[in-house]
Amino acid sequence: MVPWHRVITLVVCMHKLLCWIVIFAPIVSWAESERVGIAHFSQGDLSGWQSKVFAGQTVYAFEREADGMVLRADSSASASGLYRAVSIDLNKTPILNWDWKVANILMGNDERTKTGDDYPARIYVIFSGGVMFWRTRAINYVWSNKQPVDSNWLNAYTNNARMIAIQSGSDHVGHWVHESRDVLADYRRLFGEEPSVIDAVAIMTDTDNTGASATAWYGDIWFTAQ
């Protein structure tokens, strides 16, 4: 295995979260289950989640709502996230499920540029290339300010990361939204190849490039067969 510090040096030019996978955190596998729990935020549980700071500290803290606990994220010109190392076989459990809510969208930023690459809420799915660091891939499911829902584009920092607008605009601001995505199908469509096993899932609310502020809430995250 390549030493983690050397891998970080090699991929430092990649986008924010692509560096996370090279930390080589202990991997927990639930691939044989038909429901693979990734985040149990409704139980106030952050077990297995680790923090990565890129530019200032986004504050993540549990908050109680009527239906239970959720994880709140507050960002002010900051970019830090939480990630969990996992091992997910998409041939068995390809569907990613999650719940999220935002208090606001970012205004005026062009998300296809480096200066506008900020989102009030995003979920990453990361596929490591292992020692072949150049093959690291990431899908970013984002709450966009104006990109059409289900549109996709290259990340402004690296071609190894692709963005998909799951929500767009302010129509659902302040409301919980449940999402389901076929990650296997998305990967094939975006990268034109078969994916490796998923190595990590992450969340991030970031506003470092725009200098703006954003608040989001994240519910549970899990994979299912259908």
UniProtKB/TrEMBL annotation:
Alphabetical UniProt keywords: Membrane, Transmembrane, Transmembrane helix
Residues that span the membrane, as ranges: 7-31
InterPro entries, alphabetized: DUF3047
Keyword Transmembrane: yes
Name of the featured protein: DUF3047 domain-containing protein
Organism: Nitrosomonas aestuarii
